[in-house]
Amino acid sequence: xxxxFRVILFALLSRGAFPQAxxxxxxxxxxxxxxxxxxGSWIRYLxxxxxxxxxxxxxxxxxxxxxxxYQVSGGPGWLASEWYAIEAKAENAGAGKSEMNLxxxxxxxxxxxxxxxxxxxxxxxxxxxxDRNGPKLRPLKDGEVSRCGRDNSFACGITTTAQLAKSLxxxxxxxxxxxxxxxxxxxxxLDFDTYSSLGQTPPxxxxxxxxxxxxxxxxxxxLEPQKASLPVLVVESIQRPTEN
Length: 244
What we know:
Blueprint: H1 2-14, E1 29-35, E2 42-46, E3 50-56, H2 57-65, E4 72-74, E5 83-89, H3 97-111, E6 115-130, E7 138-139, H4 161-172, E8 176-178, E9 186-187, H5 194-197, H6 211-219, E10 221-237
Parallel strand pairs: 4-10, 6-8
Antiparallel strand pairs: 1-5, 2-3, 3-5, 6-10, 7-9
Helix pairs in contact: 2-3
């Protein structure tokens, strides 16, 4: 069965599960400069078809292709250490995020000579599942936003189980896949001992439950160790750009 799903995933990749940069539209103008700022990575999709970004290159690749960090592999060491500032403008002033991400892929291919290979690899993951006693998530009403628990709980602002799974990745140290089957938006409140989960010592008199207990008691969910075949972008070659 696993072999069958791997064949299906390879077929999806060959049909463009990761968009091909060579087929993508291009920015009308673009400026690339080396940056010494490492205060925070960001990418902004601005009115008028403009894109502004500043980050290390591996992160820019990840953003352009809409994948997670663990799904970008290979390349030289400076891929994760050298920062670049990009200012670009599309000919189409109404270009949105999806179209500009395709243009960013083209920019990476043209200016950085980025060449990628697509693979499927097995990863240890966690599946986010509904606990045996059922979910305890309260659906959000139209116009309602998610509240925060005491001390600005970990899940403050998260409204879907997919968002929760993505956020838990940094806590548990491996990808978390949403397998709850729960659609819609919920008031996701999760208050747990983030210190111990991250290998840190909690402050004196700190009393919060473990992540496992909090998921079960507060949300009616649980994490299950699993393996999953996931698509990966392998950097085969890349060059530093000529600045302009």
